[in-house]
Amino acid sequence: FQGIVITPLLLLLFLGSSSSVPFTSIFSQLFMTVVVPLIIGQIVRRYIKDWLERKKPPFGAISSCVLLMIIYTTFCDTFANPNIDLDKFSLIIIVFIIFSVQMSFMFLTFLFSTRNNSTFTPADTVAIVFCSTHKSLTLGIPMLKIVFAGYEYLSLISVPLLIYHPAQILLGSLLVPTIKSWMVSRQKALKLTRQPKAPVKV
């Protein structure tokens, strides 16, 4: 929601042209697109929770397929647009910037959650590193389409998000073994330090 305010300001700063955003329309559309389905899902879940626990539908596979379809259709819409003017060098620069931003965010959140006076456990740190830097297409693309409805360069604006989401999946997959070994060793070290010392017999 902060992006609704920050994005036009950034466009004004970098492009030097005026821009206006219909906040009432955007918030109402976002509410109907994001919040209402979430509320309906939570209400329905209360009544069919027992049935879901018995049947165990493959929601994980379904959500992965839906997400894959969203990524695929968004990629198709973006690069099939004749107005998109993105050369290979610019695309490589964007990929490099996004990977750098992601690595910086993950490194900063790791430092923040492991500082000396931190009360976070190693498992908390892992959750913070991955969750706080996460940005999903399922929310980002609808927000872009609502905020920039009718804008001819919408496909170009979508490119960083299209790269960010697959990049975070790739980075997460590469970092999982390292993060897992760190978490296990850290948990073992904490257990050893918390064990009571045996009394010394004189």
SS elements, strand count: 0
In the predicted model, the low-confidence regions spanning at least 5 consecutive residues are none
Structural class: mainly alpha
Strand content: under 5%
Helix content: over 70%
Shape: globular
Summarize this structure briefly.
This is NTCP7 protein. The protein has helices at residues 2-15, 23-55, 59-79, 88-113, 122-131, 137-147, 154-194.
How would you describe this structure to a colleague?
The chain is mostly helical and 202 residues long. The protein has a domain at 86-187. It contains 7 helices and no strands. The chain has helices at 2-15, 23-55, 59-79, 88-113, 122-131, 137-147, 154-194. The longest helix has 41 residues, at 154-194. The protein is globular and about 65 Å long.
Considering the chains and any ligands shown, give keywords for the structure:
202 residues, mainly alpha, 7 helices, globular
Describe the SSE topology.
Elements: H1 2-15, H2 23-55, H3 59-79, H4 88-113, H5 122-131, H6 137-147, H7 154-194
Helix pairs in contact: 2-6, 3-7, 4-5, 4-7, 5-7, 6-7
